[in-house]
Write a structure and sequence with these properties.
The complex is a heterodimer of chains A (113) and B (109).
Chain A: E1 4-7, E2 10-13, E3 19-25, E4 31-37, E5 43-50, E6 53-57, E7 64-70, E8 73-78, E9 87-94, E10 103-104, E11 108-112
Parallel strand pairs in A: 2-11
Antiparallel strand pairs in A: 1-3, 3-8, 4-5, 4-9, 5-6, 7-8, 9-10, 9-11
Chain B: E1 4-5, E2 9-13, E3 18-24, E4 29-37, E5 44-49, E6 53-57, E7 60-65, E8 70-75, E9 84-92, E10 97-99, E11 103-108
Parallel strand pairs in B: 2-11
Antiparallel strand pairs in B: 1-3, 3-8, 4-5, 4-9, 6-7, 7-8, 9-10, 9-11
Classes of the chains: A mainly beta (113), B mainly beta (109).
Chain lengths: 113, 109
């Protein structure tokens, strides 16, 4: 059973479109994250939710909107996609917010053309 | 937050030992993590240090010195499958992980 699963794995879309990436974890964790890994392999946190509440919101364009319907799901919606949004987006989860390992999903490779 | 600094690439032969150093700024520091990431895959957790000293897990060990803002990951008895990127990450009191750019380890026969 996959612990943290995100869909789709690959996403190719045109500039200006709106797209969503879904993430689900079956580990019973209370904290979920979205990370972005750019072409230089820098892994940078975007958002963090604890028990469905937003606790970390980095400097991310407001075209990116996370939504957590319950603590097992954290989806990411992106409006008006731009070329610079092309990256690999990783969902992750952990039990608690501190001093705890995060489990990552397999990533969604987004390519904006 | 923490500024994480680690070497870009290291090369070593099978069976050897490699030490990957990581320095960080100590503002709001709350633990140091190491993750392994193979090309095209998700990062996977290797180790966590919050107190000074050495944590050993099989072939991998991680060391932390809080006063020096310094950590290292030691990989012993290198195997070909250890070729990967190794990410150093500092955690803060909010649980935010700040990752370094990763050190690409290349293991040669």
């Amino acid at each position: 059973d996959t612990a943290v699963s995100q869909t789709p794995k690959y996403l190719v879309t045109q500039m200006g479109n709106d797209k969503s990436i879904k993430c689900e974890q079956n580990l019973g964790h209370d904290t979920m994250y979205w990370y972005k890994q750019d072409s230089k392999k820098f892994l940078k946190i975007m958002f963090s939710y604890n028990n469905k509440e937003l606790i970390i919101n980095e400097t991310v364009p407001n075209r990116f909107s996370p939504k957590s319907p319950d603590k097992a799901h954290l989806n990411l919606h992106i409006n008006s996609l731009e070329l610079g949004d092309s990256a690999v987006y990783f969902c992750a989860s952990s039990q608690g917010q501190r001093n705890t390992e995060a489990f990552f999903g397999q990533g969604t490779r987004l390519t904006v053309v | 937050g923490q500024n994480i600094d680690q070497p870009t690439e290291m090369t070593a032969t099978e069976g050897a030992i490699v030490q990957i150093n990581c320095t960080y700024q100590t503002s709001g520091f709350n633990g140091l993590f190491w993750y392994q990431q193979h090309a095209g895959e998700a990062p996977t957790f290797l180790s966590y240090n919050v107190l000074d000293g050495l944590e050993e897990k099989g072939r991998f060990s991680s060391f932390l010195s809080r006063s020096k803002g310094y950590s290292y990951l030691l990989l012993k008895e290198l195997q070909m499958k250890d070729s990967a990127s190794y990410l150093c990450a500092g955690g803060d009191s909010w649980g935010k992980l700040q990752f370094g750019a990763g050190t690409q380890v290349v293991v040669t026969p």
